[in-house]
Design the sequence.
């Protein structure tokens, strides 16, 4: 919050170190806001403009010069469809060797609001999804699609339309709330409307199972399948209800967890995602995650650059790609050896720089590449180009993935 506030007084500059210095000097946010002007300006980077902004915030919040209030708000009560961000198992950070002068950035601390219902009780239908994408493609000037208009234009029911829009947002094809196509959605609509290509399915799986906002989908692939003994569909639902107990009402957990578990199993056992062969049934009729080693080089490269976008960095640690929740290694069940072999292939192609000497274990992204370019190259069966070698973007063309 302090970092965000400082951006209004110190534009076009990384203010996180200044915010950290303020907290280190004063101890907490309340003490920063109540600090004297001279004391504030002792912190490097704080000018009269920054002091004026902090004093204005203190005035608006009614913070007295001697205030020592706790800036942490009380937790929200449990509601039917609103839940605090679930805690995930923390892993010990890898040690950074003394030789590392430049280290990969860590993930953003911005909280993600989980969504219990992604499918809204419906299964994923590729043909209906193609109907919806076609309807959206044919209306490129629309900035926000109304549900009723989409129902009339596609012939789908209200529930089907809501479900397809929600699932489409979960796998990165459309934007939440507006339902307009993302740049990735435009690429898929042009090259793989029915979501048949392994390239599409791999990347959509990464976006769907790797995003903590898709609560059940994410938890199944990043926690349940990786840490628990194989169990059946009923066991999945029971485990998830126990894990989420207290975050939702019992009624919501009984109803919606069962719906979402059925959606995931149907998607990976019957529908398009079955082609990835990620789930298999054990001899005792339980379900387990199969290690997926057939990742397309273009889709893996797009995932790595996507992680770099999320970290806002051009350096990504191997751990972030192989073991972190939401990482390619985690959602595809890859061990470290398999992941290293795949990354080495990308290194040999010149798409990344894999740095392992002198105690390093990190991936350096190549300037000019982005996730969308790797995916486009995969669909078009060509080598990816850096921005300096590619055709110039049209005015206003968005190159971000989502």
Sequence:
């Amino acid at each position: 919050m302090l970092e965000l506030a400082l951006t209004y007084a110190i534009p076009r500059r990384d203010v996180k170190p200044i915010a950290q210095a303020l907290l280190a000097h004063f101890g907490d946010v309340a003490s920063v806001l109540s600090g004297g002007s001279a004391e504030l300006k002792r912190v490097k980077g704080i000018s009269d403009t920054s002091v004026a902004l902090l004093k204005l915030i203190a005035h608006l919040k009614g913070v007295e010069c001697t205030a020592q209030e706790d800036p942490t708000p009380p937790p929200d009560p449990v509601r039917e469809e609103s839940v605090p961000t679930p805690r995930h198992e923390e892993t010990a950070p890898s040690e950074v060797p003394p030789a590392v002068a430049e280290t990969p950035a860590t993930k953003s601390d911005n909280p993600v609001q989980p969504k219990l219902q992604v499918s809204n009780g419906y299964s994923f239908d590729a043909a209906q999804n193609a109907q919806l994408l076609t309807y959206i493609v044919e209306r490129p000037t629309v900035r926000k699609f109304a549900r009723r208009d989409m129902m009339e234009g596609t012939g789908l029911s209200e529930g089907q339309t809501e479900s397809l829009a929600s699932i489409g947002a979960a796998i990165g094809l459309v934007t939440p709330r507006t339902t307009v196509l993302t740049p990735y959605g435009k690429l898929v609509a042009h090259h793989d409307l029915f979501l048949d290509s392994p390239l599409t399915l791999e990347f959509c799986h990464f976006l769907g199972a790797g995003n903590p906002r898709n609560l059940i989908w994410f938890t199944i692939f990043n926690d349940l399948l990786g840490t628990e003994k194989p169990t059946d569909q009923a066991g999945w639902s029971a485990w998830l209800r126990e894990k989420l107990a207290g975050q939702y009402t019992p009624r919501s957990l009984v109803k919606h967890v069962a719906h979402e578990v059925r959606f995931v199993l149907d998607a990976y056992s019957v529908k398009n995602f079955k082609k990835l062969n990620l789930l298999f049934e054990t001899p005792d009729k339980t379900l387990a995650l199969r290690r997926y080693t057939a990742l397309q080089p273009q889709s893996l490269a797009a995932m790595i650059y996507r992680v770099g976008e999320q970290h806002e960095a051009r350096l990504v640690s191997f751990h972030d790609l192989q073991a972190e929740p939401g990482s390619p290694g985690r959602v595809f069940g890859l061990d470290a050896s398999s992941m290293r072999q795949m990354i080495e292939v990308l290194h040999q192609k010149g798409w990344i720089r894999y740095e392992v000497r002198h105690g390093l274990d990190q991936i350096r992204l190549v300037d000019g590449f982005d996730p969308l370019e790797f995916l486009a190259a995969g669909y078009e069966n060509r080598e990816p180009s850096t921005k300096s070698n590619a055709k110039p973007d049209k005015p206003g063309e968005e190159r971000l993935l989502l």
